[in-house]
Amino acid sequence: MIEIEKIAEILKKGYLSYKTRNRLIKKALAEHFGYRNVSVRRDKYIPVWVEIKVRVKKPDHKCLLGQQCEVCKKITEETKLKVQQILDETNLSSDLKVYLDKLKLRVHTYTITVELID
Ligand SMILES: [Zn+2]
User: Fold this and answer.
1) 53-73: per-residue pLDDT in tens?
2) How far is the CA of 69 from the centre of ligand 1 (A)?
3) How far is the CA of 71 from the centre of ligand 1 (A)?
4) CA–CA separation, 30 vs 32, rounded Å?
5) Distance 2 CA to ligand 1 centre (A)
6) From CA 96, how far away is CA 98, in angstroms rounded?
7) How many domains are there within the chain?
8) Predicted TM-score of the model (pTM)
9) Cα 27 to Cα 103: distance, rounded to the nearest angstrom
10) By residue range, what is the domain housing residue 113?
């Protein structure tokens, strides 16, 4: 939690480069999921876009034919919510939105992918 508070402080100070921002995302998520299990990558062509990938342990069972069962789906959804919660708590999520002037919209510029590992 201390790390998260520090990040929130840094964010209050204003503009961040994509690189720093992405490093902060990784830090914030690593505190909960473990450093090894978080990858934060910016898109090669659209630097504003960020791909957040989190690996969590798969429950001890076999899903049918490689498809995700209800249990695995639930874990995936809960993990995504947790990632979102951390991004909101740190206020990093507000830095991950862009304002589209013509459409008067604020859109998210990130994707959250959850990978279940054995
Ligand atoms: Zn399953």
Assistant:
1) 999 998 888 787 667 788 899
2) 4
3) 5
4) 5
5) 34
6) 7
7) 1
8) 0.80
9) 33
10) 2-117
